[in-house]
Every structure is written in C-alpha cells, then in structure tokens.
Design a protein that fits this description.
Helices cover 50% and strands 6% of the residues. It is mainly α and 345 residues long. The chain has 3 domains: 42 residues, no CATH class; 102 residues, DNA polymerase, domain 1; 146 residues, hpI Integrase, Chain A, CATH 1.10.443.10. The strands form 2 sheets. Strands 1-2-3 form a 3-stranded antiparallel β-sheet. The protein has a two-stranded antiparallel ribbon with strand order 4-5. A hairpin with a 2-residue loop joins strand 1 and strand 2. The termini are far apart.
Amino acid sequence: MPRPRKPPRVIRCKDRPGLFAYISRAEPHIALNTEDESEAQSKLATLLVARRLREVDPGDRPIAEVFEEHFKRSKTNHTQKTNYEQGRNGLRLLRWLEERTITSSRQVTKELVEDYKTSRRFARQRKRDGAAGVSAARINAELTTWAQVMRIAVEWGLVGLHVLQFFVKLREPRPEPHRVGLTKADIERFLRAEKDAGYRALWRTVIGTGMRDEEVRHMDASDIRTKAIVVTPKEGWATKGYRYRTIPASPKTVKAARDFLAARDKLKLEKKTVWKRVQKTRKAAEITKHFSLHDLRRAWASHMLAAGHKVEMISKWLGHADLITTMRYLRIVTDEVVDVTKLPF
C-alpha cells in the first residue's frame, strides 16, 4: 500500500540551522534562509505560486489592488505634488513586479526587494557610462512607496508585520554644511540677467521668502501683507506637511510677489520649463555654480543665518519638521575675517 503524500509545509532539520520547505519526496529540504516562522510560510507560498503548484489564495487580493488603495489614500492625505510622485513610483513598481510575475503581496520577500535595489543600482552604473540612470534618493523614494503599500497589506491581514523590515534604504550622499552657496553678488547677477519681468519677480519672491515653488504658484493677493507673506491652504491644495506659516518679507520682496501675481497667467510654470529657465538665466549671468529654483530657497536660509537670525526661526519659516533638515540647507555665503585678537584662547 503506497504511503499517503504529505502536503507542502515548513519543517526543521536536525542539526541544520534555519527552516526548510518540504515540497515533495523528491524535494524534501529546500533552504528558506530564515528562522522566522511567518517569513518562512510567506516564502513557501511564493515558491508554490512560482512553481504553479498553488494559485493565489482565494482570500488574498492582487497586489495591484493594494497599490490602488495606496493611491486613493495618498490622494486624500497628501499634496498634489506628493500624490503625483507616489503615483509615479507606484506605476514603476507595478511594472517591475509584473515583469517578474509577482501578483500577490505574499510573494514579496527580502530577496525580491534586494533584487529591485540591485536592478536600479545597475541603472545608476549605466548612467555613469552615459545611459539613463537614477539616484540613491530616487530609489529610496520608491522603496518608501513600496513599504507604504505593504503596510496596507499588513493592515488587511495579507502578510505579516515582518515584511516591513525588508525595505532597508540605500545610503544617500548628503550635502555638507561647509559647502559654498550663492553669494549676494551671485544672486544680484542672476536677477539682472533675467530679461522677463514675470520670471524675475518669481526668482525675487523665492529668494526673498524661501518659499517652495509650489507655494509661490498657489499664492494669492490675500496672502501678501505689508511686511510678510502668509502661506495658507487653498481649495484642493495644501502645503507640504500642512505647515502654514507667516514669513517676514522686505518691501522689495512684497513688491516682487505682487508683480508675480500680475504676470502669473502669462508665465509657463511647469517644473521642467522653470528648471530650463533657471539654467538659461544662470548661464546668461555667467555663474558657474549649478543650482535650481529650490537652491534659491537654500540661499535664503543661509543668508538669513548669516544676518544673525536664529536657526530655530529659520526652520519655522521654511516649514521644516525638524532642525536636521534645516541644517542640510545651510551653506557658507560670506567670507568672514576672524579677528585673532578677540579669540577666547
């Protein structure tokens, strides 16, 4: 009488560390490279689906459905810019998963996440060889989106909480605090080189308030005060982190903000168009330092610190959640001469 077949399951082997998958008598010990029972069960399910020995569980949901739920929540809880970036990251991840026939959240393993990072890092290497590539910051942003999607899968009971430990980010190069930023002379040359009054008013508003480009674009006349500009929510839009604030502004900055509002409808304010305009003006001003519109926000923070304002207040005016982010913005913008006769030691 033949022995009954045993179902696939997770087992332990005597004198051998880790957990193993039993598939059949022909494959009794497949190493799963983990000691965690939940992770081992998840790997076994992935293995069975990959070998077409098991379909996706009836109680499971397609991973595309989890991504769709994440996109809906992002649309409700985040700004339009953040929602756009989350959607873009989600579509890229879904395409990558579809290429590898990953249809279930339970198929997501640490090896799969590492494979994704390796493939994206390889794209970074190709960039150095002249082809398209991505930065560590971009990879980490995509991993953040993926981790948020898997958190929903955990919430729905599709996977265990241990899955969230798979998304270890890459080390990003951080700007060093001793880097030299845009000096006042650089900024004045940049503003003089801009021939269009509307764009010049935009540059002057950012350099005079440290506002984000999206905040400037959503500004209206009621936000401009005599000595300040107020960042406030609008219908269908909210600033990053929902941090609304009052930023002190000089008379020149207030005038520039009003001039920008008067010319806003005539300007092309798409991100790529603005970036190209900044580079064109930078080259016309013969400034060799490469910078973007956001670097004018960093320049504002650096000059405010050089003018004697406390870093805590600068952080508040920038709308940062902590001082660590603000410290990354700061640059050296003055050539301070030290009087050695006044040194304490």
